[in-house]
Design a protein that fits this description.
With 145 residues, the protein is mainly alpha-helical. The chain is built from seven helices and two strands. The protein has a single domain, classed as Orthogonal Bundle (Arc Repressor Mutant, subunit A). The chain has a two-stranded antiparallel sheet with strand order 1-2.
């Protein structure tokens, strides 16, 4: 990749068409490799969502998607999940902990308090691909509008 950067940004003003074509082909190959890596990551997330998550955790993940605009911190989210699903707070805490450990949601912790609970990109992919839920727009989609 560094070689490609050098070729593209090289100080030489006389670049042949063949050099440009070759560089474009090399870039296309590099992008295909990156795309393949993302596809593999997506397949891994999908497998994780199917294998590791209980029905309750899947339900909580769906519910979090629909309630993510609340900007609720972790401890308050435990209370909200407990109330919404009529489960003890300890059960809600355990299920949210699992979702956080498998990187499907982000939340504050002892060292980073006050961070609202939100879906990660992996959480969005799991919802969209395996659980059939269209998640909220990504940060990039929001900033583009």
């Amino acid at each position: 990749m560094e070689e490609l950067k050098e070729k593209v940004s090289g100080s030489s003003t006389s670049v042949s068409r063949d050099d440009v074509r070759k560089t474009i082909m090399e870039l296309e190959i590099a992008f295909r490799r990156i795309e393949d890596s993302f596809s593999e990551l997506e397949r891994s997330i999908n497998a994780l969502a199917l294998i590791r998550l209980t029905e309750k955790q899947q339900s909580i993940l769906k519910w979090l998607c629909g309630n993510s605009e609340q900007n609720t911190v972790y401890t308050r989210m435990i209370e909200a999940v407990s109330k919404e699903f009529k489960i003890p707070e300890s059960t809600a805490r355990w299920n949210l902990k699992v979702l956080r450990e498998v990187a499907l949601l982000e939340a504050g912790d002892r060292n980073n308090k006050g961070i609202p609970v939100r879906l990660t990109e992996a959480g969005r992919i799991a919802l969209e691909q395996q659980l059939g839920v269209r998640s909220l727009p990504t940060r990039d989609e929001i900033s583009e509008s």
